Structure formats: C-alpha cells, structure tokens
What does this fold into?
Amino acid sequence: MTHPFLDLAPLSAARFAAIEDRVARLLGTAQNVVIMQGEALLPLEGAIRGTAGPGTTALNVITGPYGQTFGDWLRDCGARVIDVVVPFHTAVRARQIHDALKRHPEVDFVSLVHAEAATGNTNPVAEIGEVVRRHGALFYLDAVASIGAEPVLPDAWGVDLCVIGAQKAMGGPAGVSAVSVSERAWARMAANPGAPRRSYLSLLDWKERWIDGGRRALPHAPAQLEMLALEACVERIEADGPDVVMARHRGAALATRAGAVALGGGLEPYVHEARDAAPVATTLRTPSGVEASEIVARALASDPALPLAAGGGALAKEMIRVNHYGKDATAGAVRGSLAALGAALAEKGLTVDVEAALRAVDDIIAA
It folds into this structure.
C-alpha cells in the first residue's frame, strides 16, 4: 500500500533550487538564499559561527531571549560583545543603535531579532539598518517570527545575514529554515579561520558544494517532507498575496490587544506601546497574585487547540502569550483565546467582561 507521506520520489536539485528562488522572491533579495535542513537555530548559529571570531567586536541587541542566546554564541566564538539591553516590554530605537556605535566605532558586527515572539515585541529594522549601513558593520537579523507577518526586506534594509523559518507566520513545520547571505558576509566567512567547515553548521560548505557548482548537485539528501511543506507555505502566501497575509496578522494582533483591554480582570498588554507590539504574538501581563501558567492551564482545559502559552522561565508567573500566527491569525482564534482567558480569570474571582472583549475584537476585524 502506498502512502503520500512515505513513498516520495527523490527531491531533485532543480526542485530544491526552485524552492530557494521562491524564498528569495518572498524576501525581495538578490542575495544567495540557502535552505538548511533543520530548525531555524541551525542557520542562526551557523551564520554567527561563520562570520564571527577573535577580532570581531559585536553589538548585540537584547529585546528577548534570542538576543541573549546570540550574545552567548558570539562570546563562544571569541568575539568581544557589547550588549544593548532593552526592557522586554518595549523595542530598541535606531537612536540607541546610533549612540552605541558612536561610543564603540570598532564594532563590525550587529545582531538583532526582528520580532521576539517570546516577549511580543518587534524592532524597527528599516531604521536600524540605515544606521548600521552608515557605520559599515555586518548586519545579522533573526526574522524567523516576522517573515509572513510583516515586511522582511534584507536588500532594502542592508541586512547581510537574514534567517527565516517556516514555523511561525508562514504556517509550516519547524524542520526547515533559510538564510540569505550577502557577498560581504560570504567574504567574511571565507576570511574567518574559525568558520565551520565540513560541518552541518557550515554555510561555506553549501556555498562551495552547492552554489559555486551552479546548484546542480545537492551536498546531501534533502528533507523531502519539510522542503515540500516550505514550498507549499510560499505558494499559499503567493496565492493570498503577502500584503493580505500580513494584514491578517496585523489585524489579529490589534484585535487581541483591544480585546484584552476590554476584557478587564487586571489583564493588560505586556508590551506598553502598540507600535512596539509584534504581529505574530500578543503578550499579556496578569494581575498581581495571579499565576499566568495557572490561567493558561485553565484556559487550555476548555480547548487544548487554543494558541495560548505562558511565558518562559520566570515570565511564566506573569506573562500570557496569544500566538496568533499562521493558521491562528484569525478572528476565531483570537475570540476563542480571550473567551477562555476570561472564563479562567472569572474562576479566580476576578471581574471580567467577555462580551465587551469579543465586541472589541469584532470591531477591529471589521475595520
């Protein structure tokens, strides 16, 4: 008996290259795009280890947990790291990057997360890119959460290494990711004696064995299911139109924020200003004495499919995350999440107005 998920014909090099080209068009980039056969941490780490090492001075922006991870990798590579730490309830400003680079003219590498799904904020990459480009540093961007939910334009923004993944707003699996690489970044890797070679982390291996050979022979067997899923994600975005998909995410974010305020019960947006709030996830702060993880558990007991999660680590006590991305960037997912949270808060004796929350959601979606 045949099975569509098991009895697959081999994925050809031509098909692999065609999927890379479609990802490049989605990013609006003329840079090389390499699709890597693993979750986005693979190219995120590979890009840092390929371009940073002793002698690198990195400005690492921390607006959430991934920024902290990048700083750890950079230090492990032997780079000198200057952290710009921003409270997780806000976003970094281009002026802060300008001032940091003025204080540290030796910086030659800048790392930034576009949207931090874990903390619910998003950073103004276009403005920051202008600052970094004037300074001349290599610009590394984690756009894993933002791709599909808001514009991601590495060429226009001067991004040298732009990493994306399929598992958030693209609505796909976590097992495949991609990175666009500028000529400056390739040159930095080629000159870096510590860049991974003959390694699963190595972007240089992909360049030498795949790109430089005209993309005719794959360096190893591709993950067929994940590649086909990535192709399907891009096809769906192309069919709906990127602007429509982004508007859907933006609408879900605005509706969640407005609905949470109308709900009451002491729940309030974790990210203070709407302009700093990511379109992929809305984070909410629980009132004093109410454990976020308990509220989320009660809400999920009513419907385990709701896109709700408590914050990670210490944030599990105070942060609720509504993950309205991909298939959950809908009014239904937002309405269901707020209704379940309202019921859970009411069980704790807090006064909520679920009907007002749902009306606020509907008003935003209608607008």
